[in-house]
Design goal:
The protein is α+β, with helices and mostly antiparallel strands. The protein folds into 2 domains: 226 residues, no CATH class; 304 residues, Distorted Sandwich (Beta-galactosidase, Chain A, domain 5). Helix content is 38%, strand content 24%. The chain is elongated. 41% of the residues are buried.
Length: 549
């Protein structure tokens, strides 16, 4: 039975090893395209073409200068600083004032980027003869635009060159306290013929991680396009599947959105509800990929005007705010296959954070709550282990008597367990129960932007990153060693050595785990030690009292 107990313990170890291998897999960097080529490709990418179902108009792609030679205008609000290019009115650079870079906390985090670190752009345009695309050079307003005190929003208007009497203005509205940008096209048909048009909104990105993975065992969650419709729900698309032509997602719908997901942050085009749209994802060369939506525009009669619009969200994956912006948008937070546990776990953590104002203390409190929840199970398990510990001398005598007859020894041990009403596997139950909670909390700490650069106290200034001085992992290892000492010593010396080696193995693995996760494990171990010590003392005292009587 002790061998079975060891096997169960190794199952837990294997689960962590699989988790570790997942880290290494995510840590494999994608091939890096040359920045100059990537930037050129982003500017020269072809215009998407709607399917016959949406009755496409003729696509005319005007020529234009290279992106590096195109002027930009800066738009600044209380939360962001955006650079908008004259070419297409693309958002080619976007900084977040309240979120800092991992390597340098003095610099704002950069989402959209025109080649300084990687390529990531928000693009849009119109499809139809004489209509501007994301390659058209617009006329910019003079000077930069900033949200002033007392203003709720600021508007940027870009004028396209007039073609055949058709005038188009791209209007971008930035609001205070929001990561949403309203993007619309105002079309005035001054020609003598009716105009049929489509609008497209796309996100173009390379496949490289936003931030360099931290050290050995660094982690990156899903990076790539994602689509949401009522019919298909949330669908992630791997870049590799786009290359292979195997990308699967709902292509046409009258609802939903398209996003580009990366660790902690997301950008998403949110077309107006009820408008028929067609989704696409494609490789545009030089390591770049585009994902977007095409929306038809009602036919514009001569002398008439029309307007087509969409919202652009570009910001952190704050779950409570994403859910309020669009249905299903909160699903971009990647909790892996244990979402059913991770989502309510995060909700409890967020509630505790509101009470304490600190995510570290929230983790400690949720650990105490989980320990209280599983207290009856833990108590039964620790009683079983305490009884096993008391039987240690008798088991040792059995080993001496039947050391050469393992079948006989196993039989006698089973009889002893039955007589003393002991479940030798009971000690493994607390560990087995904690495995899904442990992994779920791992994904919460890994995928929740709320934890990013969130301090606890002292040297722990980022609960989502590893302990910079490895203090918590060492404390965790010591606590595991103390727990091992409280457990009954296995009669098999090889088994005993393996058990004693586990604290060393786990300490090494936990060196690169998020410090918030190690904090959870340390607190859990300390509470377990206290509970186990008390139960063991009571059992041993009772046995001593029985012998004395």
């Amino acid at each position: 039975m002790d061998q079975r107990r060891l096997i169960l313990f190794l199952v837990f170890s294997f689960s962590l090893v699989m988790l570790w291998e997942g880290w290494i897999k995510h840590n494999q960097p994608a091939p890096v395209a040359q920045q100059s080529a990537a930037t050129t490709a982003a500017g020269d990418g072809v215009v998407p073409t709607p399917s016959a179902k949406l009755a496409p108009g003729q696509v005319v792609v005007p020529s234009g200068p290279a992106p590096s030679a195109v002027a930009t205008v800066t738009v600044e609000t209380d939360l962001m600083r955006a650079e908008v290019s004259a070419q297409g009115g693309d958002v080619v650079r976007l900084e977040f004032k309240e979120h800092k870079q991992k390597e340098d906390h003095s610099k704002p985090f950069l989402l959209f980027d025109n080649g300084s670190a990687h390529t990531y752009l928000a693009q849009s345009g119109l499809i139809g003869e004489g209509l501007p695309t994301h390659k058209t050079v617009f006329t910019l307003p003079e000077g930069d635009v900033a949200l002033k005190a007392g203003e709720d929003s600021v508007v940027l208007r870009l004028e396209a060159p007039e073609q055949n009497g058709i005038r188009v203005t791209k209007v971008m509205t930035f609001a205070r306290g929001s990561y949403l940008v309203d993007v619309s096209y105002e079309i005035s048909n001054g020609s003598g013929e009716a105009v049929s048009a489509h609008a497209y909104f796309q996100l173009t990105r390379d496949s490289n991680p936003a931030e360099k993975p931290e050290g050995f065992g660094g982690v990156q969650t899903f990076i790539g396009p994602a689509f949401y419709t009522e019919a298909g729900k949330f669908q992630k698309v791997q870049f590799e599947d786009i290359d292979d032509g195997d990308a699967k997602f709902v292509k046409t719908a009258s609802d939903g959105w398209v996003a580009m997901v990366q660790h902690y942050f997301v950008s998403a085009w949110l077309p107006a509800a009820g408008a028929e749209r067609e989704y696409f994802a494609r490789s545009v060369g030089n390591g770049l990929y585009s994902a977007g939506a095409i929306v038809p525009v009602s036919q514009i009669a001569p002398g008439a005007t029309a307007k087509v619009e969409s919202r652009l969200y570009a910001g952190p994956q704050e779950q409570d705010k994403l859910e309020a912006i669009a249905p299903g948008l909160d699903l971009v937070v990647d909790y892996g296959w244990l979402t059913v546990i991770a989502a309510p776990l995060f909700w409890v953590l967020a509630w505790l954070y509101k009470l304490t104002g600190n995510w570290g203390w929230a983790i400690i409190l949720v650990t105490v709550m989980l320990k209280a929840l599983f207290f009856p199970l833990s108590a039964a398990s620790y009683k079983s282990m305490a009884k096993m510990r008391v039987l240690g001398p008798r088991l040792q005598r059995m080993k001496e008597l039947y050391g050469n007859d393992k079948a006989k020894m196993q039989q006698e041990m089973m009889n002893l367990y039955r007589t003393e009403k002991i479940n030798p596997l009971g000690g493994c139950l607390p560990i087995l129960v904690q495995i899904p909670v442990f992994i779920a909390l791992y994904w919460v700490l890994l995928g929740s932007v709320e934890m990013r650069q969130a301090p606890w106290l002292g040297w722990i200034q980022d609960l989502s990153a590893k302990d910079p001085y490895f203090i918590l992992p060492i404390i965790m290892g010591v606590s595991m060693l103390v727990q091992m000492k409280l457990n009954p010593t296995p009669p098999d010396p090889i088994q005993a050595k393996v058990m004693m080696a586990m604290p060393i193995v786990f300490t090494f693995m936990f060196l690169w785990f998020p410090s918030g996760l190690v904090l959870y494990w340390v607190v859990n171990n300390v509470l377990s030690i206290a509970q186990q010590w008390q139960i063991t003392r009571m059992i041993e005292s009772a046995k001593s009292g029985t012998k004395a009587a």
